[in-house]
Amino acid sequence: MTDDNRSDTDELNRRHAEKMKRRKALQERALASKTVEKGLLMVHTGKGKGKSTAAFGLMMRAVGHGMRVGMVQFVKGAWSTGETVALERFEDLVDFHTMGEGFTWDTQDRARDIAAAEAAWAKAKELMADPRYRLIVLDELNIVLRMDYLPLDEVLATLAARRPDLHVCITGRNAKPELIAAADLVTEMTLVKHPFEAGVKAQAGIEF
């Protein structure tokens, strides 16, 4: 390396170090200003894959901190999935309730779908009222709300009245605007490309 090249490299390293020092100071000030600790209402929505998958990741993270978590699945039927098998290994900290009977095109019975949604919501309220839980995942609740199987006002009121330290994560596409407005954290999964469009079937370990 020539002296000129070495000098240029030293100058780049110096500038980088100064930039990172300023960024660290800004980050530390920002972190110091965040003092609120509360239970969050989180919504995973959008047409892209990953809404429930991300919620399972939250559950595993909470379990890693020794927190008790619960999940109520509003739509998915009682078929075996990798996540249910994995979570059974943490039965002392995880309660998993699959209350749905499949998608509406499977049942083709609105009254039956509404009854299943009501039963799942009753279970969700039971879990939310139990002080042992720190995180509750309401999987695909957005779908039953979109189909008007549950009264939105009651759901919003129950979520608003939950105890202050309880985290709740709601998944499903087409989240209601009122739920988005009430949430602390909203993530929209954007569909860019999906293998299903190329004829690839759902595969173990990826889709279920």
Secondary-structure blueprint:
Elements: H1 3-32, E1 41-45, H2 51-64, E2 68-73, H3 82-87, E3 94-98, H4 104-107, H5 110-129, E4 133-139, H6 141-146, H7 152-160, E5 167-171, H8 177-182, E6 185-188
Give the structural class. alpha/beta
Taking the alpha carbons of the first and last residues, their distance comes to: 54 Å
- Tell me the radius of gyration: 22 Å
Output mean pLDDT: 89
Fraction of residues in H or I helices = 40-55%
Q: Helices and strands, in N-to-C order?
A: HEHEHEHHEHHEHE
The general outline is: globular
Alpha plus pi helix count:
8
In the predicted model, the low-confidence regions spanning at least 5 consecutive residues are none
Q: Count the beta strands.
A: 6
The main sheet comes to: 6 strands, parallel
Strand ordering within the main sheet = 3-2-4-5-1-6
Share of residues in strands: 15-25%
Task: Give short descriptive properties of this protein.
alpha/beta
Q: Mind explaining what this structure looks like?
A:
The protein has helices at residues 3-32, 51-64, 82-87, 104-107, 110-129, 141-146, 152-160, 177-182; strands spanning 41-45, 68-73, 94-98, 133-139, 167-171, 185-188. The protein has 8 helices and 6 strands; from the N terminus they run αβαβαβααβααβαβ. The protein is an alpha/beta fold and 208 residues long. It has a 6-stranded parallel β-sheet, sandwiched between helices.
